[in-house]
Amino acid sequence: MQGKVRILIGITGGIAAYKVPQLIRLLKKNGAEVKAVCTPCALRFVGDETLRTVSGHPLYRDDVSFHDIEHIRLAEWTDLFIICPATANTIAKIAHGIADNLLTTLALSVPPEKMAVAPAMNTVMWENRVTKENIAALEKRGVTVLPVGEGELACSASGPGRMLEVEEIVDFVMSRLPAEGALSGKRVLISSGPTEEPIDPVRVISNRSSGKMGAALARAALMQGAKVTVVSGPARAALPPGARIIKVRTAGQMRDAMRKEFRSADICIMAAAVSDFKPAQTRASKIRRDGGGKISLALEANPDILAELGKRKGNKFLVGFALETSAGNEQAERKMNDKKCDMMIVNRAGESLDRDSTKITILDAGGSAEPFPAMDKTQAGELIMQRIAARL
Ligand code: CTP
Fold it and tell me: CATH classification of 187-283+297-391 is 3.40.630.30, yes or no?
């Protein structure tokens, strides 16, 4: 991947500015690097310290002296400059080329096709003809204007004018970027996390998978321009909001969802740690300690989802994960062939399960085996998606 997507958020003085730290956090979770610039009024609604902490960068503002040409550097740095919330006042200024603060100066320096605004104002201002004309002027110039939401406004009135929800803004940003990734136009299906097989109403059979690897793969695929669907078991790791997420619990539910989604996928990565066994029967009520002694639980095998998908593979690109506790790649190679995968990612339980880092070897059905040193799962996700893209 050619580095992270770089987003510059312009914050103006509207109440919705308080949502921006959350927006920055979500964009970063999706793999973006984010910087923020604000107008003097914005600081009445959101804290400088918060913005610096969540973005991991200085906050660009007028009353702090930056180098004279800072706005040019920032304009060149960013892949997308999104002004949110964008007040009627700032929209009016940028529609007319007024550059009276750092943010509006930036708006004159960033090409319109790299700019977006998420308006936020009360309904009367939103519906005012002047605002409509200013919005139309921005659109005509090539600036993307996001729709407004409808609902309760800060002034207690209700109507159109609310800033879109942060998740909707993230979806917009992710759908815009990058226009030309190595996987643009491809549909990537990923299974992630553990599955859970109920024993009784309170107990389950599961495993220690955190879902971090699946989340990292989803993020990497999104950043390379793919359309991503994740079928996820009950995992702790947060999935990128830019992906379509289907939540499941049991291996049976995961199998149904994967089989259905597989039909329209180009690439399928089975990163989930599927429970191989489930209780032969689920008790309707809690198992009691009454007996005092031992209890035994009859287990039966779950379907092998990857092997089933392998049988329907056609010309889709199919990737499996082999979680091993022993050294050597023989078991993983066997699994790759048996399950008809194009690629198998080998990792060892002790070096990967429930950790932030992993040490993988990429096996290719062509016969190659490429070992890598331990790395962060985010990096591993990027590396795997790169290798897949190179094989298509
Ligand atoms: N897998 C699956 N369905 C299962 C078990 C595993 O789809 N019921 C998939 C996993 O998601 C992984 C691959 O098969 O991509 C290999 O999983 P792994 O647990 O390493 O191996 P198993 O095939 O289960 O064999 P074993 O547990 O005997 O090592």
Answer: no
